[in-house]
Prior knowledge:
heterodimer, A: alpha/beta, Rossmann fold, 7-stranded mixed β-sheet, 5-stranded mixed β-sheet, 13 helices, 41% helix, B: Pyruvate-ferredoxin Oxidoreductase, domain 3, 6-stranded mixed β-sheet, 6 helices
Amino acid sequence: MKKLMKGNEAIAEAAIRGGCRAFFGYPITPQNEIPEYMSHRLPEVGGVFLQAESEVSAINMVYGAAGSGARVMTSSSSPGISLKQEGISYICGAELPCVIVNMVRGGPGLGGIQPAQSDYFQAVKGGGHGDYHMLVYGPSTVQEAVDLMYDAFDKADKYRLPVMILGDGMLGQIMEAVEIPPMKDPAAFAPKPWATDGTGTGKGRRIINSLYIDPDELEKVNHRLFDVYVELAKNETAYEEYKTEDAEIVLVAYGTVARIAKSAVNLLRSNGVKAGLLRPITLFPFPSAILSALADKECIKSFTAIELSMGQMVEDVRLAVNGKKPVGFYGRTGGNVMSPEDIVKFISEKEGR
Amino acid sequence: MEEKIIIAGFGGQGVLSLGQFIAYAAIADGKEVTWLPSYGPEMRGGTSNCSVVVSDEKVASPIISSPDCLIAMNKPSLYKFQGRVRKGGTILVNSSLIAEKVDRDDVRAVYLDAGALALEAGNAKTANIVVLGAYIKLSGLFSVDLVAEMIKEKFAEKPKVIPANLKALELGYHAV
């Protein structure tokens, strides 16, 4: 039975259904419905909800709980996620699983509270110090956010890294009909023989750490992490193609913006312009191979990245297209959101269509 | 079928919940829907609006540049959004608070004294439900019975307010 739910609340319920039993956070608009929901829902399933005194505390509580083997998450919005970067780097260095939700708002600094996509670089290129990545999803509908969140803890456990759900204020606030999947049985989750849960003693003692003084040892860790990213790219890369078969102009957009771009594709087609859309679902790993393959297609004349930023994902599009076709960019910022008609106007004027 | 609606007014007028009722009705009717609120440092007395898209197919853009229908609950909302309604669209004006007329002749303008009808229904707070009744009549999207069921379900925990809301729905429905 489908239910009308707000993005933030649906994501919180999906996390619990996916096995989340611990949440540490600190309030910030536009994601407050997630901790609010967790605060009454987690105790019902025997979980832990804690509002920390700061984002720095919250992410380090996540670090601790993840180390002990819990399915743990935090959520925040841009300025709060910046504060969490040190902890995220440590969690990645210590190879621990967790889930982080960022409902992005405009920046830099305190910025605004309206939707933005200007944390793309921070999410996919690292964000904190050191060589690391997370598995980053950019859901475009509440249902997709629910489905990705539902399995996010499984992915985090499998690859032993944080999974980030990169949404925006719009995704958090919108209400849509969703199908919430059934509760997963925690007894069925794979054991974590590395977790510091009090069972490793003597020679089998377990240590969670991100400090490696010996350069050779640290280099090995760096290579081990990047071997995982190769596996991620092989197994987890996800995208949606929309009307690209005969497209001459391909829009590239992720998240809620991809929905606006999809409407723009339909408007452009009704004006006789053969447009299509490539929508990355995983932002890291980025779907470079499909973009490269599209760039090889004769019918496709150009790509245009559409973002709520000054142009961040467009750099990954350019790397993937690798000069084979021109790559344009259209963005709105500051919390302003383009309409489908704005995209049509941009394509008509700048691309001469 | 795709119907794009912008509902706007003061915070506290039930603008967001009016949109939610349309969204609930859409789901009960087997349609696809998105409900997107304005959000921000808003409070009772401030301005508030939401965009609702009802469709037979999955809704792509929840952002509406040109609505099929504008429901203006106060004067600033009418001024802000009336120019964006598509030609041949509908503007439903809460004339209890808006003395001005719609400044366009290429749309259908409907005036509704929602405040007075809400008082007649027995509860001044039901003005948004009066408007909901008028809207479902004008749009022809849902049956009044379906929305009445919705109201009973959503107010199940506050049964005392149900009769006034049902009355408000009916008064609004028959007023246009």
